[in-house]
């Protein structure tokens, strides 16, 4: 029965992922609505039939091209649908069919949208992060994973830590190294996951960002002026904490046991 429900969660997540593609495409453009018009080819604007909107399968059936104009369809579309489907299945496996599943489904969907918008436009829309802070804090009153005190402290520390890092970087280099969107995003992460997640999220995102950043510096030949979006790394680190928190804490305890003197 659990396998059947997990499959349903996978399909439900993929369907939601199809809508998230619309959000990712249209939200950065203030002139577009995420509701109207209906789904259409971004190249020729031809409305899509229902059978062209089946998550992942339609992309495969059409061989990655628009049925009308034959232009290539971005790989982003099936990727977002598949990612949201897998996230939904993982959330169901972790939390089961309860309010926590719904709460963190919204969180995961918001992070997925932020990842792709930040990669494409290097912005994190306030319309996602600011309401996300409020939703995360409100949910802490009914979600057993995080108390409202942990959520509130997560908001304060999340916003404060990155603001301090950004300010210090600006003082030392006279350049802006981190945008305000990243600060609001970490505050949102703190609201959903509590203050205890922040040390790992900042460390893991910085490590992953440094690895990718070094690769980008070597490729772009811009040295210290190479710019990469930091939001995706914060989001990935937050998802890792959400799903692997017990294992992360065990590794941390093991590290402390090996490094701290005994007796």
What would you note in describing this structure?
- This protein is mainly α and 263 residues long.
- It has nine helices and no strands.
- Helix 1 crosses helix 3, helix 1 (2-26) runs parallel beside helix 4 and helix 4 packs across helix 9 (231-259).
- The radius of gyration is 20 Å and the shape is globular.
- The chain starts with a helix and ends with a helix.
- The model has no long low-confidence stretch (mean pLDDT 87).
Average of the residue pLDDT scores: 87
Low-confidence stretches: none
Structural class: mainly alpha
List the secondary-structure elements in sequence, H or E: HHHHHHHHH
* Cα shape: globular
Fraction of residues in H or I helices: 55-70%
Count of discrete structural domains:
2
Using brief descriptors, characterize the structure shown.
single chain; 263 residues; mainly alpha; 68% helix; 0% strand; globular
